[in-house]
Amino acid sequence: MSAELTLGEHDFAAPERVQDEAPQSRRPLPIGVLTILGVLALWWGITATGLIQPLFLPSPQAVLAKLWLVSTKGYMDATLWQHLGASGLRIVTALLAAVLLAVPVGVAIGLSRVARGVLDPLIELYRPIPPLAYLPLVVIWFGIGELSKVLLIYLAIFAPIAIATATGVRNVDQTRIRAALSFGATRWQLIRHVILPSALPDILTGIRIGLGTGWSTLVAAELVAATRGLGFMVQSAAQFLVTDVVVLGILVIALIAFALELGLRALQRRLIPWQGRA
Amino acid sequence: MTAAHAAQLIVDRVSVRYPGTAHAALHDVSLTIQPESLVVALGPSGCGKTTLLNLVAGFIKPTSGHITLDGQPVDGPGAERGVVFQDDALLPWLNVLDNVAFGLQLRGLDRREREVRARQVLQQVDLQGYAGRRVWELSGGMRQRVGLARALAADPRVLLMDEPFGALDAFIREQMQELLLRIWRETGKRILLITHDIEEAVFLATDLVLMSPGPGRIVERLSLDFGQRYAAGESARSIKSDPQFIATREHVLARVFAHRQPHTSGA
Ligand SMILES: Nc1ncnc2c1ncn2[C@@H]1O[C@H](COP(=O)(O)OP(=O)(O)OP(=O)(O)O)[C@@H](O)[C@H]1O
Ligand SMILES: [Mg+2]
């Protein structure tokens, strides 16, 4: 487990060595864990001196106590888990919708010059705009309901997946295509059996990047008249200067993002074990 | 079933010119591949060997001329012409068995049927113990055998091979040549093989075609029988040390160099 916590392990051939290594307990702590422990210690040290008022920086203990309180009693009429669930549902819905649409769109862009000519400029045009900039327009068009929030996250996830998929499709090894053609593959079989699996590493990278931007768009999305959600929780806590809930919310948001990243990397390793070897 | 009069692969006065190039990649090339023959095209780099094979495979179309297989015009890739690629072109997300069965899967055979056939072909290439292995765990020679098995599994009428052993070391390459001759004898498939290894060409070919660049063309044809002698049971060692083999090899070597001279200044 401990090896999974370092972000940098990607660069080394770690999985190969696991077997002939000493039992896990004897492995040194990864540097990433040490860094986090260091920051925690610093945080604790600074607040322990009492030089900084808790209004500006609450102590780790206070945040921990708040974690207990918010998870059991709740904050703003919902427990931490309900806030988390609301945010999670939004991002999962947006992600599913984005994957379902962006992958076919990416394949079309990668395969057809016409599709690229039509769709590429559209995506490139909206992609660099910060979600907060078009948020008002989304609200005017789609109201302040769930749809607007999900749509905002969806837009943030869509572009990276579509672009990554198109790149993957364009880079498919031509001899693999020819191999399939030499067995009489139809166009659909080619996509299903050669192009999509070949592009899978890029698609997963697109999903990773998309989830990252999507998650950070979440807070913005939950500014829109939400009554639940991590972004909403942080936002309303800030209005009432409940700094410990703000810090707690930020930490939970960061932790989820980190867990998503690790989960997707694990998924990538599992689904594409040949990466870098074939 | 067999229309004997038409049972051959015919390349008829074919030329290819890639857009924006000075020389034709192939100029007026004609070639016939008879049943049970093993045609080897040999020549220096750039003489159009791959172009010739891609034409027969249907990956590219000739600028002029025709190609027919058993009386049918070749118009695009098709399952009756199996291709073995130099860089194996296996699919890493499939295991060895599924790679071998890939052509049958595309053809719509159900899983049981295609696995029976794939196991049978794996045995032919001496890989029966490797069905469940990942292809990226295999050595280069094994991967080439999987590629050969994949092409054979679809039971093509012709086998097309573009420098299939070019990336292998000398020892493995000899093993693969012997394996190929064994399979050729067992299946009776017509084979068109491309190489730039002179000994390989002389050892394998029933018909050796020497090619020359600028423009790519056929400059000499030889009928040989060393491969047939191996298939009939003579050992590779004794064939390759036969003075006749050595003389043929030297002759081919001389011809290849003779045709290369006029162009060395231009290259
Ligand atoms: N797609 C292409 N576009 C333009 N020119 C090409 C293309 N493919 C090949 N050629 C040219 O056609 C000629 C023949 O190429 P070909 O690949 O058939 O040679 P080859 O005999 O297979 O060489 P090698 O032994 O290096 O593989 C070369 O001059 C090459 O530069
Ligand atoms: Mg070539």
UniProtKB/TrEMBL annotation, chain A:
CDD domains: TM_PBP2. It is found in: Cell membrane. The chain crosses the membrane at residues 31-52, 91-113, 125-144, 150-169, 190-211, 237-260. The keyword Transport applies. InterPro entries: MetI-like (IPR000515), MetI-like_sf (IPR035906). Signal peptide: none annotated. One of its GO terms (cellular component) is plasma membrane. Keywords: Cell membrane, Membrane, Transmembrane, Transmembrane helix, Transport. GO terms for biological process: alkanesulfonate transmembrane transport; cellular response to sulfur starvation. Residues 84-264 form the ABC transmembrane type-1 domain. Belongs to the binding-protein-dependent transport system permease family. This is Taurine transport system permease protein. The lineage of its organism: Bacteria, Pseudomonadati, Pseudomonadota, Betaproteobacteria, Neisseriales.
TrEMBL record, chain B:
This is Taurine transport system ATP-binding protein. Belongs to the ABC transporter superfamily. Residues 11-238 form the ABC transporter domain. Keywords: ATP-binding, Cell inner membrane, Cell membrane, Membrane, Nucleotide-binding, Translocase, Transport. GO terms for molecular function: ATP binding; ATP hydrolysis activity. CDD domains: ABC_NrtD_SsuB_transporters. It comes from Andreprevotia lacus DSM 23236.
